[in-house]
Amino acid sequence: MRLSRYFMPILKENPKEAEIVSHRLMLRAGMIRQQSQGIYSWLPLGKRVLDKVNKIVREEQNRAGAVELMMPTLQSAELWQESGRYDAYGKEMLRIKDRQERPMLYGPTNEEMITDIFRSYVKSYKSLPLNLYHIQLKFRDEIRPRFGTMRSREFLMKDAYSFDLNKEDAVHSYNKMFAAYLRTFDRLGLRAIPMRADTGPIGGNHSHEFIILAETGESEVFSHRDFVNFDIPGEDTDFDDVAGMQAIFDKWTSVYAATSEMHDESAFDQIPDADRLSARGIEVGHIFYFGTKYSEPMGAKVQGPDGKEHLVHMGSYGIGPTRLVPAIIEASHDDNGIIWPASVAPFDVVVINMKPGDEACDRMSEELYANLTKAGKDVLYDDTDERAGTKFATADLIGVPVQVIVGPRAAANGEVEVKDRKSAARDVMTLEAALNRVAG
Prior knowledge:
This protein has about 450 residues and is of the alpha+beta class. Helices cover about 30% and strands about 30% of the residues. The strands form 6 sheets. Strands 3, 7, 8, 9, 10, 11, 12, 13 and 16 form a 9-stranded mixed sheet that branches. A 5-stranded mixed sheet has the order 20-19-21-22-23, with helices on both faces. The longest helix has 21 residues. The protein is globular, with a radius of gyration of 24 Å. The two termini are about 20 Å apart.
């Protein structure tokens, strides 16, 4: 992508409305634009990051055996009345009527709709276990949306829903999502700590939030320091191994961790002082097991191996991609801008032509752009006529992991400079060496 033809509206000044680092940097880097209170457009640079986050979330859901579908954003109020949540949910739900005066709502979550889909088609235990998920916009009319897309009214959510014959099988489904979440956040460059949490309006009796530590976190969290050394489940993890999944869950819940709502001061005090961790945290995922909370009022039953009908046991599992993007920035930035993990960077490399119009600079920049693109890299080519300082500031601000700088003096000698955004290390090398290093 040539920067001269790209839409990336960089802001030179810090936006006054931005209270935290991620909101400020997302606005400055031209990733998002606020359209109204708590509602944002995702501009091209932000959309590229969001798509890569979604890709990783999708890959790990699929790896764990979940099956993707897509449900509508608008839902009939009848389903929510059937479950008993329509009046109980509160003012966060946006209630509307269509032209026939039928009550509708902009879905804040999808337990009722997925239960309706399930009960319409699944009749036998032989179709279980089943986990269905989608990645879809949601709306919750937050009383105080803030921090950009960290706490917005409209947001993207991956929500998955598991169906099992009994509690034992449902716990295994819960454990699979638990392990999948650990892998997902690790691939996004985050160390997430699973913490016992309140079930809130979703309901149920078993719930964990996945929290990353950050000074700007909304919640106060308490945990044991051992979490930073726990191993993440590997790519070869067998999600059908019941004992293996339980072992992962047991390991990651073997030491104390809780949000403020579930905090037990006496239990926390038993941890040695050196191992206590009290900090602010950002919730990036939440999983629930709630048994028959929805299947009972909505009649979601299957015929069991005994020939009798059984209410299915359910769980739900949420990840907010539009919240994850600022969370990653909160965890990875410096005074100059964003430092993206390679897995979600909007571009893999930015080629900076320091002097467009110079024969050697143009030739080498074009060669880098063409060959790196051919090698499968996402390349941003800064071919603009901006000053050198502006080009460097833009590259640092948007956080692309690798910068290849083509200046007239080095280009005359057939050389370029390669800069690592995270470490700021710079190396001068031949064009061929730079291609081999960056393309590899």
